[in-house]
Amino acid sequence: xxxxxxxxxxxxxxxxxxxxxxxxxxxCPFARDAQADxxxxxxxxxxxxxxxxxxxxxxxxxxxxxxxxxxxxRSRAELGSEGLxxxxxxxxxxxxxxxxxxxxxxxxxxxARVGDAIAERMLFSGERxxxxxxxxxxxxxxxxxxxxxxxxxxxxxxxxxxRADPAQLDRTERLLAERASVLGxxxxxxxxxxARAHLDPDGVAPDTRERHHRRGLxxxxxxxxxxxxDGAADPETGAPIKAA
Length: 244
Hints:
Elements lengths: L7 H17 L9 H7 L2 H31 L10 H4 L5 H9 L3 H14 L2 E2 L5 E2 L4 H8 L5 H14 L5 H14 L5 H15 L6 H9 L1 E6 L5 E6 L2 H9 L1
Antiparallel strand pairs: 1-2, 3-4
């Protein structure tokens, strides 16, 4: 493989996963398939394999985020029927990505948002500027941070960006990118709440802001032509819906 390709980190991660798997079943002559191999592994071997495959997933998702963001860019509304998604037979880029992944539209949309957040920006002069979230971009590219955690961090930072001090915002992003990789989901939520309060002490109450951020509605057509819905509403928005 060309050492200059951006796929090198992914290839190395896959190599690490393969090596960990082979080491974990080295003393198991009767291993026959993936299930038999997993059942035959020691606890230590199983945990090592889990870590290595988790690293592979982070690298894969990092590349998918880039690709999803580019699909969205090539499908923007002003292109109309000439947009990539429409030409491929889909109503929206999120639907296209969702279908390709066999995933929920919300997951596809999150990948695209992360890809946009970590992508270098093109200036009117034609020059490239750093990503909106450069520290997250590095952590994601290196496979240290998942796209799920990156999405949460980027969302919080974007919410306070207009009111927070730019230098402080940058320091907070760098700190979150470094620490989030060793946290669980709940611990990340606590850390983000503290960071948000520090960056925007006079802003909207965190719980209210979070509810507003989490509002959304996905509408899509499945393979049988059924129109499906999935979404969430804050108490104020959801009350009339619930009553109906």
